[in-house]
Amino acid sequence: MACNFCHSVTTFINLWDPSVANAASGMAVHDDCKLKFMELKTKRTHRFIVFKIEEKQIIVEKLGEPTETYDDFTASLPAEECRYAVYDFDFLTEENVPKSRIFFIAWSPDTARVRSKMIYASSKDRFKRELDGIQVELQATDPTEMGLDVFKSRVN
Predict the structure, then answer these.
(1) Record's Pfam families (predicted)?
(2) Helix 18-25 crosses helix 2-16 at what angle (to 10 degrees)?
């Protein structure tokens, strides 16, 4: 359903304001985004990364230290603004084997501006393709849609 939503939003943007559609589809990804993601993936130097769109490009807004918690991560997401984020989620398998999964989170709270939601929705797939190694994707409009229970249910 997310793909249908994104397609609908992109279609709406094209009809509503073609200049916004061009900006969204041509959203630049700052090199630092890919570099920091590779550090998270290969060196595990970050627990999470929060990205934001600023001046027609996606940039790194916050890096979470490896010792930071899930609560630190959720506190980094603004209550009324859209963001992208990646989170390195550690867990134990049923056999007590430690593992991790890299989650991509598209944070689009209900209280965010409609224009912002449309720009983030239409840029998401292209940005996600730049981050090679995403294992699980979540889309959340409120904190309950990305609670720890949701993370745990998606790793199995």
Answers:
(1) Cofilin_ADF
(2) 130
